[in-house]
């Protein structure tokens, strides 16, 4: 595979240029999909021929890292060197600065380097190029670097009693070697599209450790037969590939029918009733989601094919392969609250934001988390408009849930009415919030909000002010005082699925 640069839009290999012209898709996207399909086939071979039962962790680390760097070079050309530079800089910080403050320095350096690359790509080279660019993998690497730094800090610098249950489980007690560090950041299974994962889970996967089967202890009697052999991921991989194919077909066939830009068309705004604008807004934003379903589900399938992602067994004995899954499609499409939507969309990023920012920020953790998310996503102004809007929508949704929802729990019929209303409100609020994320620029985004008279902004601010919600630390304190045991269980359940399973074992 060659790695010549053929155009400013694609810095990777030109080998697949004929295929790109035949199917009329950008070359960088063709390179990305082909590399992911190659990674899928390689993952099966990795699981079969380099199984941890007969291959040393050193060999598995080396192979996973070299394959990942090759795929990155094929897709992005010399820009893939940024992955090594970012990882090398932060590893040096980890070694030289000590565990007391390394997590802060790593966050600043990793996020700063990512932001520098994003700004130069957007404002220096090609504004509006929204395709398979090299900063996409760097976003995942930034998550891994900062997560690792905070987990090392928790394991080597903080006292056990000061850690939350989730932090105790993820804490790292020794500094990773250089090979382990680069393997974690640049392995072929996740270098192009992630998802991010905890360092402990990745090392357990490479070494074949028992942590991958940690939740079997809670159901040992029912599942002792299943533990005798490692479950095969073939069935779940096929199911996820079918989801990828369906998502891709929907995106290619429907996306151009409902372009998002029509929401700011002058004739459309002037001649379309408001209810029709709301329906079109929902449909246009709905058709943008299948491309994310395709990319993230394919990435999940690649990890599963390699044997990574096993999360124990269900109560009926069927294996679960959702340890690092990045989305739950049905929960997204039928979400009845802003929080439920965010909890099921880009799950691993939500977990990263929670571990790095929300749980550790002493003041205004919601606002700080949205701002960090905007900085991590990139330099387009539309990202900041989306996440600033998300702050007020989140506060309003929380106020409605705390003050209104209890009145509808008296009967199933009332609960159904509440769910229908909140589903419609959630979908419109999500679409309204995310439009700038798609339009990218300030002018079109403000034009859209002006066409809606900033109605969602105004309504959310009024709801957040009119409906009181106690601060988070006071709610937790009341829960601990009233129901100390139930409060402990809720804290365990509030962690991600990875932490949850480990906590059950403990």
Present the secondary structure layout.
Blueprint: H1 17-23, H2 27-49, H3 57-76, H4 81-97, H5 102-125, H6 135-156, H7 165-170, H8 178-186, H9 199-207, H10 220-223, H11 234-254, H12 266-271, H13 274-286, H14 289-305, H15 329-333, H16 338-344, H17 347-358, H18 365-377, H19 381-403, H20 412-439, H21 442-451, H22 455-466, H23 472-482, H24 484-494, H25 497-505
Termini separation comes to: 49 Å
Instruction: Give the low-pLDDT segments.
Output: 1-8, 212-228, 483-506
What Rg, in angstroms, do the CA atoms define? Answer: 23 Å
Judged by helices, strands and strand pairing, the structural class is mainly alpha
- Helix proportion: 55-70%
Architecture overview:
By secondary structure, the chain is mainly alpha-helical. Helices cover 67% and strands 0% of the residues. The chain has helices at residues 17-23, 27-49, 57-76, 81-97, 102-125, 135-156, 165-170, 178-186, 199-207, 220-223, 234-254, 266-271, 274-286, 289-305, 329-333, 338-344, 347-358, 365-377, 381-403, 412-439, 442-451, 455-466, 472-482, 484-494, 497-505. The longest helix has 28 residues, at 412-439.
